[in-house]
Design a protein that fits this description.
Glycosyltransferase, about 700 residues, 8-stranded antiparallel sheet, 17 helices, alpha+beta, globular, Mannosylglycerate hydrolase MGH1-like glycoside hydrolase domain-containing protein, about 30% helix, Beta-galactosidase, Chain A, domain 5
Length: about 700
């Protein structure tokens, strides 16, 4: 399957709108309100900061009267959003895209059915806040070639301000322009309303006045507009490109705008960028169309929300990039580790490491880093990793020695969020990885190994509850402290803390429908807990991000990997539990069971699978579904001794194929058929065959000898 096939066959989807070029600018409003109005009127973002709105396009007749456009159709693939409009005066096809230049582009094709020429105005315009809400504008320049400005966001007294340049223009010069500052009179209405803008009064049959005005106090909104007159003869079409480009400074933004507007067909350029993206990731096809579509849709989301480029190091942006609600940098790194371009993967890793110590201590950092080092080995990076982990590990051990309370307080509004056990498991995992790094660097690790033993024993001592037969956590409630059974109680399996007896009991708990085996597993809190609520309500109030019963994709992926640890050695019944869990986890991406329309949300109801739709679409969705499909469905799992294990689990498939999959510098191709069995090629040469139900273990020649240890 080529990248073009993915665009046209797999990802031509209804009711979708997200666009991104894989860099700083993304246009993916969570709850869009203006999809059917020309331009990008819903908010976009630059490094996560809102651009609201980006720009709008208004069609006028020759007398400067608005022409109302009725949307007749809307189609999407990752390369473009195509909207068709009609009115008595015109037929319009608008194609929107976000290029890798960080340019939001609207390509217009317009015609009419009249027997005489028709004259129109197209106005490209937007509104930006100035001297309010932390926004300041400067260096506004306007001329027929376009309008440019520098926007500054004050991020707080202790943080440097973020600046970006913006340039708006079209594929030809404007006839007239206007820049108008309007004093603040409260928050403006969302989107862009032509009648409420100053251009409604200023626009005349001769165009805009071509001036700049300033408000007395400077605080308010600045409206910028460019007016373009057109004549469309009968039987002919108008083709025009409108764009807004963004960059760290105005000069770069102008350059990006010029390049975007000079393209003969920017939509074709976007398609080529997307084809290259899909050709640079493993190709997965299978007999289940939902799994196949989900795989490619997930890769599309990774590019849309990218933000990194091999020709622009991420470190220049990481100081300013903000973390959106529901962001899962670990899941992103794990999935991106399968990408073919090492520089891109390492940029993702550097970006994650640039985050503060508190954030890194609260996520499964070591789990993600192991994945990168096993698939994209970089020996020169080991010293950097060890130095970055050292202060986090040191502080973690100091806190452990101080015997701080395990309880997590709650208030009158928020439900209990038991995180002590989860963060301790992540800490132990990071401690193990730090020990391994020091071993590879030739350093003494005796004290680290002792810390690992002590830290692990303390987790078991404090959290394994014999009565509950589960790893419990504690919360304060009603003036006291009580134990709870969070889904994080399965995570000790991820770091080999559970012995065989505990493993058996944990699996029983996982498969118990009265605890965690709900219709859509795994709820974040056991179903038999008094605080369990599948609707995410606490004291009758719906809260945005509840952890007392909702299903969270990131936690699901961690439990999948905990269960998948050494799964090749487990009993068939355990393997089937993992198969069923992965299958149910992936199906959550199809809300209401609609197999044609994948979508990601932050959390889900464990009983009926309904997502947190009131929060809008999640930007990427948590977890690492791509990894699950490669590692468990296709069975590609690098082992700790330099061998490659190919061990597909018994999913309900007739066939699957995985090609262009790289482990180190080796290209792996796997084909499986429910009759013919398993066939593997490495570097385009036959490497083995096995009947159905059997695995292959293959020694990779010249593979990086220092594999990450499984323990």
């Amino acid at each position: 399957m080529t990248g073009l096939d993915v665009l046209n066959l797999e990802l031509s989807l209804p009711d979708e709108w997200q666009l991104g070029g894989g860099r700083r600018v993304v246009w993916a409003p969570r709850t869009p309100a203006f999809l059917d109005e020309p331009g990008f009127r819903d908010p976009g973002s630059y490094l996560g900061y809102p651009i609201d709105p980006v720009f709008g396009i208004t069609l006028l007749d020759r007398d400067a009267r608005p022409i109302r456009l009725e949307r007749t159709s809307r189609e999407w693939n990752p390369a473009r959003l195509e909207v068709k409009y009609r009115s008595p005066q015109a037929l319009v096809t608008e194609q929107r895209t976000v290029l890798g230049l960080d340019a939001c582009v609207s390509r217009w094709t317009m015609s009419h059915a009249a027997e005489v020429s028709r004259h129109y105005w197209l106005v490209l315009w937007t509104r930006r806040p100035n001297a309010r809400d932390g926004h300041r504008l400067a260096d506004i320049e306007a001329n027929p070639q376009g309008i440019s400005l520098l926007e500054t966001i004050d991020r707080g007294p202790d943080l440097p301000s973020l600046k970006w340049g913006c340039a708006l223009g079209a594929s030809f010069d404007a006839d007239s322009w206007s820049v108008d500052a309007i004093p603040s009179s409260g928050s403006p209405s969302a989107g862009l309303n032509w009648e409420a803008s100053p251009f409604y009064d200023l626009m005349a049959p001769g165009g805009l006045p071509g001036h700049s005005s300033r408000s007395d106090n400077g605080a308010g909104d600045v409206y910028v507009g460019l007016a373009y007159p057109f004549e469309v003869p009968p039987g002919e079409r108008l083709v025009a490109t409108f764009a807004a480009a963004f960059a760290p400074d105005v000069e770069q933004a102008r350059s990006h705008l010029d390049r975007a507007c000079a393209m003969i067909n920017p939509i074709q350029q976007s398609e080529e960028e997307w084809i290259n993206w899909f050709d640079d990731v493993p190709e997965f096809t299978c007999s289940d169309p939902q799994l196949q579509r989900l795989y490619w849709y997930r890769w599309a989301q990774r590019k849309i929300w990218g933000g990194y480029s091999t020709d622009a190091p991420a470190s220049a942006d990481d100081e300013f990039r903000i973390t959106a609600e529901g962001d899962d940098p670990v899941g992103r790194l794990i999935e991106m580790s399968w990408h073919h371009v090492p520089d891109l993967v390492h940029a993702e890793l550097r970006s994650l490491l640039s985050r503060n110590d508190d954030m890194l201590a609260s996520v499964s950092l070591a789990h993600a880093v192991r994945q990168v080092l096993s698939l994209q080995p970089d020996l020169d990076f080991l010293t950097t990793l060890e130095a970055r982990f050292r202060p986090i590990v040191r502080r973690m051990l100091e806190q452990d020695d101080s015997a701080e309370s395990d309880s997590v307080a709650i208030d009158e509004v928020n439900a209990p969020v038991p995180t002590s056990l989860q963060e301790k498991v992540f800490g132990l995992d990071l401690l193990k990885l730090t020990c391994w790094l020091n071993e590879q660097l030739g350093r003494d690790v005796g004290s680290l190994k002792a810390d690992i033993r002590r830290f692990g024993e303390r987790i078991v001592e404090e959290h394994w509850d014999k009565d509950e037969a589960f790893f419990v956590d504690h919360v304060r409630s009603n003036g006291g402290t009580r134990k709870v059974k969070p889904a994080a109680g399965f995570l000790p399996m991820l770091v080999s803390l559970a012995d065989e007896d505990q493993l058996s009991v944990l699996l029983d708990r996982l498969c118990d429908p009265e605890m965690f085996w709900t219709v859509h597993p795994v709820p974040s809190l056991s179903r038999d807990d008094r605080d369990f609520n599948p609707d995410g309500r606490w004291d009758y109030l719906r809260i945005d991000r509840p952890y007392h019963g909702r299903v969270w994709p990131t936690l699901n992926s961690l439990i999948v990997d905990a269960l998948g640890k050494s799964i090749e050695f487990r009993a068939p019944v355990d393997r089937m539990v993992l198969v069923e869990l992965v299958d149910r986890v992936t199906r959550l991406a199809y809300p209401e069971g609609d197999g044609e329309r994948p979508a990601f949300h932050e959390h889900y109801n464990p009983l009926n699978g309904r997502p947190s739709a009131f929060l809008g679409r999640s930007h990427e969705g948590g977890g690492w579904l791509i990894d699950h499909l490669i590692r468990y469905v296709s069975g590609v799992r690098p082992s700790a001794d330099g061998h490659l294990l190919i061990d597909p689990l018994p999913f309900r498939l007739q066939w699957f194929s995985l090609s262009r999959c790289f482990v180190g510098e080796h290209e792996i191709d796997v084909a499986w058929d429910h009759r013919a069995g398993l066939t593997v090629h490495i570097n385009e040469r036959p490497a083995g065959h096995a009947p159905v139900g059997q695995a292959l273990s293959i020694k990779l020649p010249d593979y990086w000898p220092m594999q990450i240890k499984a323990s």
